[in-house]
Amino acid sequence: MDNKILIKTKNLKKYFKTSAGNLHAVDNINLNIYKGQTLGVVGESGCGKSTLGRTVLRLLEPTSGSVIYDGKDIIKLSSNKMRKMRSKMQIIFQDPYASLNPRMSVSEIIMEPITFNKIITDKKEAYKRTLELMDIVGLAKRLRNSYPHELDGGRRQRIGIARALALNPEFIICDEPVSALDVSIQAQILNLLMDLQEDMGLTYMFITHDLSVVKHISDEIVVMYLGKVIERAKSDELFENPIHPYTKALLSAIPVIDIDNKREREILKGEVVSPIEPKPGCRFAPRCKYAVPACSGKELDLVEINNGHFVSCEVFGR
Amino acid sequence: MSEKILEIDNLTVRYKSGNADVHAVNGISISLEKGKTVGIVGETGAGKTTTSLSIMNLLPERTGRIDSGTIKFKGKEILDMDYETIRSIRGKEISMIFQDPMTSLNPIFTVHEQLSEAVRMHSNLSKEDIDTKVKNVLNMVGISENRMNNFPHEFSGGMKQRVVIAMALINEPELLIADEPTTALDVTIQAQVLDLMKNLKRALNTSMILITHDLGVVSEMCDEVAIMYAGQIVEYGSLRDIYKGDKHHPYTVGLFGSIPNIKDKSKRLKPISGLLPDPTKLPVGCYFQDRCPHVMDKCRTIHPKYYINDNHKILCHLFEEDKHGQ
After folding, report:
1. Is the ipTM of this complex over 0.90?
2. Residue B159 contacts A where some CB pair is shorter than 8 Å
3. Predicted model pTM
4. How far B315 CA lies from chain A's nearest CA (Å)?
5. B131-169 per-position pLDDT tens digit
6. CATH topology of domain A5-88+169-311
């Protein structure tokens, strides 16, 4: 596999204004997403992972920083040029029901982006392509005139995927695409996403809170905490050799299904602190049992401590 | 022989939906000993929640009905109890934790008011005694006393679930039914809450029914496991039978194959193809036939019986031969 970078973010920031001050949802994030690979983004509710995804697609305008897509800074593009760009970059949402128009049939939903973006102008051809897409994502043809409310969650998510594929994208952000699904359906969708990646050479950014899912699907993983990336490594490396205390706690919190090898759990104390006007320094320090005075006061950078393994930690990251 | 706290025998529950009958629970039997935890595992629509609502006698009055079966709590039949009797048991001897902490708390009362009410309903304690009880239980679940006059919306999700757990435990129930207690929580908070429940269970010797779809959570918490599919228990056994045994229902195998295992490097999951059968039109024969990789002719015509090996039960034709051979 060639290691061409498809998407790069540079010092990307997204702050939201609140009455109490700026909420640092995405704070100075630098990412590389390689062509044909999957970058997993993990973190708990409120860590900024969905905001990051939306900012990368420019569905939210960043406060500062840039998103370089194939060498071009898309933040600087005019809205006209951006619209053309969008067909290459698609998103699949967590709740397939909320993201589908309840008054449109399955085939109408999938065909809409094709005709709207004039990918195929001939009606008959567009319809043919729609049926083809349904076949690709494993939706039976007989469902073409059904409405979303008649279908189960797994099939609705397949519609969401077909719609994202309709514009022949290169890059898809999957924002918790299987979190709302039952495990047996979740496995079907994960397999589908991986097959599509292999067949079409798609690049994914896969956002999830589920660590076993992210391990399964990702080549590289970034761990986020309160708007910051605190650790980044190849998938296997991260699970075998986690370094940041938060990553370690996160991994040890997963309930394992092996009943003979019970690990010692590391239970984190307390909860996530407020992301509004955070003080400089490690954001995890208030919950960290290894914290030292040097953890607060200055911003920490990601440091490469092993080949391709980056971590931002005053105590373990050097 | 240890004491049986709960015995469900051949419970069948139907819901009315338009002109059709939804066959939600189809003849399940569970027996739970004092101090033990049984996990009920299954996907959406398997009948897990209906089972627990039946135990609490909380089925929706107009649409839900128990067709047959018995539910005995400490030897007494719950289904024969009058309204007042069941009400005195609910929240006192049997209590329940629901999945979504926000919808189970009243937004216009403080945490203290809600917890005191739960005590007042079932006792004649003085105001001071109730106060002490509230403080103790909050302490137990790790919420500081000086937050007891806060409203639910002032707490985070994990804290709210602690309040819900505190409320379920304040009367020291003998049986706790937890319906997906950690599903809405982040994994580090889930670990805190599971740890808390484990400790409390040990301290109070509470029996528990834990309803979940997460096999990881089951392995951390349960002594016995019931795997439910289309309103039936398709496999029942000890934690070891289910996780390590060599005989399994094909649905159990499918469930385990669907979970990405963090220790396993294989790239493709082995999901169960297809979907749950329509509960208004359950097929003749085995309910799992259309999704089963081992389906045989008789699966389409004859409903399977349990293969039984000690405490391990499997509802599948595959193992019937074994039983007769023994």
Report:
1. no
2. yes
3. 0.85
4. 20
5. 999 998 898 888 888 889 999 988 887 788 889 989 998
6. Rossmann fold (3.40.50)
